[in-house]
Amino acid sequence: MESNPTSHVILGMLGLGPMSGYEIKQFVDGSTRFFWAASYGQIYPELRRLAEAGLIEADAPQGGRRRTVYKLTPTGAEALREWLATPAQTQEMRDESLLKVFFSGFAGPDATALALDRKREYHLETAERLRAIEADAKQGADPQDATYTALRFGIAFNDFVADWCEREAAAQREPRSEKERAA
Amino acid sequence: MESNPTSHVILGMLGLGPMSGYEIKQFVDGSTRFFWAASYGQIYPELRRLAEAGLIEADAPQGGRRRTVYKLTPTGAEALREWLATPAQTQEMRDESLLKVFFSGFAGPDATALALDRKREYHLETAERLRAIEADAKQGADPQDATYTALRFGIAFNDFVADWCEREAAAQREPRSEKERAA
DNA sequence: CGATTCATGTAACTTGTTACATGATTAG
DNA sequence: CTAATCATGTAACAAGTTACATGAATCG
């Protein structure tokens, strides 16, 4: 069984409890989305593959709707534990706002501060959205619960970046360096 | 001309000065790599497309080696300015180390702190690598130069995450909550 | 002169998104 | 009854990586 990135998210989600593909997608969108997304186009085919490989199996469907709830098999639980014990490999960012900061010099000396302002705005909004999720999750949440920890990371991270952008934009707006002032 | 993410990196790089595909790759690897990567498989075909669309053109090749140095045309410069003036859209992360933190509860109560330790280590190493690049770039660098600003962002960001992981791992190792202590 | 680096390029593959199709169930 | 939501799925596409092929120039 070839393992791919998406398979680990699915195994992890089923490690939290039995779920259908639809529920996995909802859960991802409300939690790992900001650092690891997944779409139906990945989830459903991957569920099938994992079931064929014997890592997960269809649980008895509950409720009136036709749906397939999956759960981990012992093999799947083992695979999840193994993956968790392995050092992480994928560490990627694609941050267009930072790319614009990087190249902003081309649009003149004031453009950098503006690019930083825009980046800041994005992170403020994201932090706010995450705080809304946190407020929902807060009731009875154990602060040491790992999923909650990841959420707090998202908030802290976005707050930090917003602050950094603010400070840096201010520095960019300060009077130019001695060399330039002398000129 | 359909614009795609890679085309903007190339236009931006050529905005810094005429470059060959090979040089673009080197430059990316030494700068935007940690927030926006690019491979030869993207760069060379895209250079051809941009040249056909008239946004860039082959400059007179300098030096003994056979190579093609590209530069922006006025149209390309305009396209770059336009892109810079537009709000950023792509904002993605794929952070496997955080995913492991998120799911770590499955591997027992101690696993979260360990996952945080590992994540911390990664960011310490990255910060160190970026500092090495900074040390190289430092001679005569204008602190308000935008490319330098992005580099400092990378360092600050990785330092922050490393610290956050340290604090959070410590909190995870503290005695459990009242509820559990009472039990 | 042999190894390394410079330099360009492509084919096969992996990964992921978007948009659509389908239909059942539930809420108002 | 009809609109929204639940639920599963796929096809077409977009994006990006890896690995390889090729050959010239340079360095020791």
Descriptive tags:
mainly alpha, 3-stranded antiparallel sheet, 4 strands, 8 helices, 183 residues, elongated, homodimer, DNA-binding
Explain how this protein is built.
Two copies of one chain form a homodimer. Chain A is mainly alpha-helical. Helices cover 63% and strands 8% of the residues of chain A. Chain A contains eight helices and four strands, in the order αβααββαβαααα. A three-stranded antiparallel sheet of chain A has the order 1-3-2. In chain A, α1 packs across α4, α5 (96-103) packs antiparallel against α6 (111-138) and α6 (111-138) packs antiparallel against α7. The termini of chain A are far apart. The model of chain A has no long low-confidence stretch (mean pLDDT 91). Chains A and B meet through α1, α4, β4, α5 and α6 of A and α1, α4, β4, α5 and α6 of B. The first copy, chain A, binds a DNA duplex (28 and 28 nucleotides) through α2 and α3.
Rg of chain A: 22 Å
The strand line-up of the biggest sheet of chain A is: 1-3-2
Q: Helicity level of chain A, as a percent range?
A: 55-70%
Mean pLDDT of chain A: 91
Measured distance between first and last alpha carbons of chain A: 67 Å
Estimated share of beta-strand residues of chain A: 5-15%
